Write a sequence for this structure.
């Protein structure tokens, strides 16, 4: 019986394993290998082993450093806005008495739309004579350049990204909210807890695991920012929206320098993995401490 | 037993995955129209079959197969690409590594040097002088690397310096002859003259942007060339002293002035020219068709491309498009050359004009298309192309040169940074990419 199970298991798992090996693990290994070479896409035969040269060179490259900083800026704006926004929307919809479905769909629609389409749409919204500037003019505010200025382009794109992505996390939070045992709230009401107390002491702790999940996935997603700046600004003005993934793409496919691009990809991956581990450790720690606190209170 | 069977299935599956990538020429009869005794030629184009362009290529290949029935059979494959050329070049790159390049493939004009320098394409078999003289000089020049002809295009392109006839008339301005274009200083005076009128119309004298991508170098490198400058050396391997020359700096500073004096909008405004709120616009030759069909109220004219004050009458206007080349993997270069000549020839050129409104590449094709004789705007663009067409820089690091040009233009003209500093920085960046070709 056991043997049969393992064969069945292999039968289900096998195809996935083969495909994953060919399309994921092997390319990952190859990328790691290429990162130590000067592999040039147009002339693979002339590839040399160059040791750590690429690793040293990319940190001397102003553009790579700037794209790194830009990406971090994107993450810093997007993560709190998108996580907080998703939670707020979920709470609001959960409380809404009417048209729940309508709001759910309305907020979720941008998620299913193609990023390129959404980006093109927002280019119109942000254009010098677009909707947003027309709206601002009604309040007597001067026309803003938005994506055409080095100062405003990054925040403009970040906000658009939040709008596009927030619906997905909202649905996750909504699911979490509906899973909270109503008895907890009833008990709190009997103790005359205020709305804020209920949120702070029941909703948030109950949503904690989901919060961590959302936090980490949004962070990783924000780090992978590519399509929006590519479509809307081409990384400009003045490289102010040039991201790491964009740099990797340009280096590898436009300038054909696969070796260098592989190095960038490896550095980027290592950075994101380290960050994710830190996030994980930090959030877990707090949870541990809370448990201790709770126990102390109970005693 | 079952385990072994499972392993076998896995191996067969994996093997199928790998062999799927390997290409082999088909046998006669495998493909409709490919008969015994014919030589098989594969050809890749950068276009989808369903598009007008794809259909034009398909018809050209079909007519080739008819004309060379019993001798050659060309088999066309359509490779979709995105705006920046992505999908198509990915496939070429992959085939360079894994093998399986076709006999003939399309290459974007500015990439010909890089493909030639890296041995992806090979020189075509010799053309007779008569054959060569059928093509516009800009097409021959675009396809030539180190005196060898590598590629021939079926399409040529041009950028027009358009003006709104009604506005120009209202302002009482005379448009100069094609051989006597406005110089920058003259043009700045014209813009100054137009400024109050355009302010009244809630517009700008000039509808112009410096977009990311190929457009910027394509539209605005002529400002460098007309001043006698070049962006790279003749062999394509030096940029220091070229890209950062005084001529380049002067062109960049001209654009800075245009922005500073508010002759153009800093942030791009859609359809400024088409809505009658700009007097001039630089745009591709397709703009004529756009205005004729979608903005019939605009009274369109084509003025000669503006030149530097130091212009000596040399070639300087934008050109270049995708071209056909023979891959290094083709075994019969004569056959591949025949196909390249056919695909870029007069009939194919007329077909590409009729179906896509892209300019053809041969004199005869232009002569056989009525509109280039009867319509003054198309005629002006054709004359500009055949008399003053200048190919874009020929260098294996063209992508970096193109990107750098746009970046410097943006940071100097729009952000007001120091022109020499920016140009030197760009030279450093391009030099680092050139190292690969110069270190031997």
């Amino acid at each position: 019986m056991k043997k049969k199970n393992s064969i069945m298991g292999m039968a289900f798992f096998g195809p996935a394993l083969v495909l994953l090996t060919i399309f994921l693990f092997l390319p990952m290994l190859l990328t790691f290998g290429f990162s130590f070479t000067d592999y040039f896409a147009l002339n693979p035969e002339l590839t040399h082993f160059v040791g750590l040269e690429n690793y040293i060179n990319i940190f001397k490259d102003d553009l790579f450093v700037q794209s790194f900083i830009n990406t971090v800026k994107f993450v810093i704006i997007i993560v709190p806005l998108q996580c907080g926004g998703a939670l707020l929307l979920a709470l609001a919809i959960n409380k809404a008495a009417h048209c729940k479905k309508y709001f759910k769909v309305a907020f979720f629609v941008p998620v299913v739309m193609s990023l390129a389409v959404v980006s093109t749409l927002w280019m119109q919204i942000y254009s010098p004579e677009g909707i947003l500037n027309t709206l601002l003019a009604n309040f007597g505010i001067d026309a803003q350049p938005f994506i055409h200025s080095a100062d405003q382009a990054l925040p403009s794109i970040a906000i658009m990204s939040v709008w596009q992505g927030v619906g997905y996390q909202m649905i996750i939070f909504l699911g979490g909210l509906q899973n909270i045992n109503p008895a907890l709230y009833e008990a709190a009401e009997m103790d005359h807890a205020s709305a804020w107390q209920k949120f702070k002491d029941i909703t948030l702790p109950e949503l904690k695991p989901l919060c961590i999940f959302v936090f980490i996935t949004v962070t990783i997603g924000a780090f992978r920012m590519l399509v929006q700046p590519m479509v809307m600004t081409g990384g400009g003005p003045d490289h102010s929206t040039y991201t790491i993934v964009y740099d990797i793409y340009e280096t590898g496919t436009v300038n054909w320098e696969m070796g260098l691009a592989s190095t960038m990809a490896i550095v980027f991956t290592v950075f994101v993995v380290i960050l994710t581990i830190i996030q994980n450790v930090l959030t877990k720690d707090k949870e541990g401490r809370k448990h201790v606190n709770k126990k102390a209170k109970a005693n | 037993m079952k385990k072994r069977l499972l392993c076998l299935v896995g191996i067969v599956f994996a093997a199928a995955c790998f062999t799927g990538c390997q290409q082999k020429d088909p046998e006669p009869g495998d493909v409709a129209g490919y008969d015994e005794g014919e030589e098989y030629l594969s050809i890749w184009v950068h276009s989808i079959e369903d598009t007008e362009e794809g259909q034009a290529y398909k018809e050209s290949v079909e007519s080739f197969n008819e004309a060379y029935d019993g001798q050659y059979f060309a088999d066309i494959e359509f490779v979709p690409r995105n705006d920046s050329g992505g999908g198509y070049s990915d496939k070429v790159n992959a085939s360079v590594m894994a093998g399986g390049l076709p006999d003939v493939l399309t290459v974007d004009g500015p990439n010909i040097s890089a493909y030639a320098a890296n041995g992806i394409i090979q020189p075509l078999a010799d053309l007779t002088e008569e054959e060569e003289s059928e093509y516009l000089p800009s097409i021959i020049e675009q396809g030539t690397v180190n005196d060898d002809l590598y590629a021939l295009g079926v399409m040529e392109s041009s950028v027009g310096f358009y003006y709104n006839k009604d506005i120009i008339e209202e302002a009482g301005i005379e448009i100069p002859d094609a051989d006597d274009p406005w110089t920058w200083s003259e043009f700045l005076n014209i813009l100054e003259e137009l400024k109050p009128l355009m302010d009244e119309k809630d517009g700008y004298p000039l509808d112009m942007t410096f977009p990311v991508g190929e457009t910027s170098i394509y539209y605005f490198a002529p400002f460098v060339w007309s001043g006698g400058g070049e962006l790279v050396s003749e062999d394509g391997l030096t940029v220091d002293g070229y890209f950062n020359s005084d001529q380049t700096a002067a062109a960049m500073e001209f654009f800075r002035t245009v922005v500073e004096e508010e002759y153009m909008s800093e942030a791009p405004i859609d359809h400024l020219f088409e809505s009658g709120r700009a007097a001039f616009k630089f745009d591709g030759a397709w703009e004529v068709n756009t205005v004729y069909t979608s903005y019939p109220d605009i009274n369109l004219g084509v003025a000669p491309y503006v030149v530097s004050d130091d212009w000596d009458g040399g070639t300087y206007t934008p050109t270049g498009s995708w071209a056909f080349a023979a891959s290094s993997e083709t075994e019969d270069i004569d056959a591949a050359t025949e196909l390249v000549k056919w695909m870029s020839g007069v009939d194919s050129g007329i077909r590409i004009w009729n179906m896509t409104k892209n300019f053809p590449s041969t004199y005869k094709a232009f002569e056989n298309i009525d509109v280039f004789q009867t319509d003054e705007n198309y005629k002006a663009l054709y004359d500009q192309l055949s008399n003053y067409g200048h190919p874009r820089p020929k260098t294996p690091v063209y992508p970096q040169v193109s990107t750098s040009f746009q970046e410097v233009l943006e940071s100097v003209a729009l952000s007001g940074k120091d022109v020499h500093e920016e140009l030197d920085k760009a030279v450093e960046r391009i030099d680092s990419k050139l190292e690969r070709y110069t270190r031997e």
Summary: The first strand of chain B starts at residue 39 and ends at 45.
